[in-house]
Amino acid sequence: MRGSTRQRGLWLGAVITATLVLLAGCTSGVDSFDVVTSRGRSVSDLFLWTIIIAAIIFVGIAIAVAYILIRYHDRPGAPAPRPNRHVHRFQIAWISAMVVLFAIFAGFMFHSMNIIGAPAAPSALRVTVIGHQWWWEYQYPDLHVTTANELHVPAGRPLQLTFQTSDVIHSFWVPQFGWKMDALPQRSNEMAFTIDKPGYYQGTCTEFCGAQHAWMRLRVYADTPDQFDAWVKQHQQPAAPPQSELARSGEQVFLANTCISCHTVAGTSANANIGPNLTHFASRETIGTGIVTNNPTNLTQWIRDAGSIKPHVLMPGFPTLSDDQLKALVAWLEGLK
Ligand SMILES: [Cu+2]
Description:
The protein contains seven helices and twelve strands. It is of the alpha+beta class. It folds into three domains: 37-118, Helix Hairpins, CATH 1.10.287; 125-224, Immunoglobulin-like (Sandwich); 245-333, Immunoglobulin-like (Sandwich), CATH 2.60.40.420. The strands form three sheets. The protein has a five-stranded mixed sheet. Strands 4-10-9-6-7 form a five-stranded mixed sheet.
């Protein structure tokens, strides 16, 4: 008796723990049912209705099975199951109902596909999204702005995103936009939508793309029109000139090292495109698509040994830089607003 009580306690504990672990996922700030694009809502509504109807069918079948199990359970005096003369009619009706249901859902699915696949409005803001192992490049061809890792777009204005990759397949998924899109070699895919409300939306690469796939995060800022205009004006400028002696010597360290064979800082001789554009690096909140906050301590560690923060990262460590050189470099980079 005591043993079984303890066992029941253990089971209860296990169920509560599992529920809490699952519920912990609810505080992530990413809710794929709280979709902020009207096109995307056609997908989330379809998903919701599919789940509701599937749940109703599931519960119906579960009740029928339970009824049969209890009623015809083999015990003295139980009724013997009798062959049903109408079983074929029942089967035909059941299968027909399923076929009709599938057809209805297929209709709604094609409807949603049409909605999300429709071309962008001619006035849409165009952004080219380029996946790299393991970061995102964003180009605004009409605004002459290039940035990385933190995408800024205006809320309330039609957007047209074009997806490309510089290496392997990546996939752009911000759950609150409603659907996702692959970035494939040798072709361009498109997504067009309008974000209804300003806010910060998170996502991640959803096509396995190597060691740091899980840390190829998406950070999207849907700004108000004024905020966006200010952001664009700032990002159209070349890099801010060094504000101190220390920063000036930091710029020299940067230009004298191999940083320039991978990074661009507009207004300097660095114009390579292997790593993220650093022209306005200091205006970004994080380093490495969100793996650490952008502050001098983390930046120092990143430059000394980026792999210690993001293992297998495609940026080499710079253990030979002296503490003074690092300090200057960090002072300069953190001034690139
Ligand atoms: Cu990826």
